[in-house]
Design goal:
Elements lengths: L1 H6 L4 H21 L6 H15 L1 H13 L6
Keywords: Membrane, Transmembrane, Transmembrane helix
Length: 73
């Protein structure tokens, strides 16, 4: 699967950037959707922020896998 992504032009740098952006988006969602005010709306914003933040390790792992691919087939 990683070879297919690499052949389609998906680079490790793109994956690392998406991982970093998911952390930033997670923090922004947490603050903008009521992370500190409590209540059900705040809890929903916190859960959504955590969900987005959990994408970061996945993107980083994909980037690491693409970096570790050998160039020969």
């Amino acid at each position: 699967m990683l070879r297919k992504l690499k052949s389609l032009g998906y680079s490790a740098n793109l994956s690392y950037a998406l991982g970093f952006l998911s952390v930033i988006a997670s923090i922004a969602i947490w603050f903008t959707q009521g992370g500190t005010d409590g209540g059900e709306a705040g809890a929903s914003g916190e859960r959504f922020g955590i969900f987005i933040g959990l994408w970061a390790p996945t993107f980083m792992s994909i980037g690491n896998g693409i970096d570790n691919l050998s160039d020969d087939k």
